[in-house]
Amino acid sequence: MSGPPVVGSKSKILIVDDDPNFLAAIGRMLRGDHVVSTEVLASAVCQRLHAEGPFDLILCDLHMPQVDGPGLHRLICEQFPHYRSRFVFFTGGLVTQAEMGFWSRPDVPRVWKHLRPDLMRQRIAEHVARVAPVARAG
Question: Domains plus CATH for the chain?
Fold first, then answer.
């Protein structure tokens, strides 16, 4: 595993979503400003973190068929506690009651999938700025 990103480098973001079309679109949107990796299988995220980490931010869909976003967050944080504050969740609106309870917590960073691309980039940049100093500390 490589060391933390150096100051001034592009932020490294892992995007997790079961919709390959959304992954492709958001990946294209963010690649100019960030180094982006995408994963469609929640079950493969731990392997990606070992193989390609560290990541500055993990963008994660709230509602996925294998493991939902809150479940993936718990799983990742058990193995990689330093990622606890590096998750940002997104949804297009389809959520279960349990997911809605998680989504509505004030400590859960979130963005809506249906934001205009410029607003999506702005929100993600805000979240990267929030966590980047921690990821880049020596």
Answer: 11-135 (3.40.50.2300)
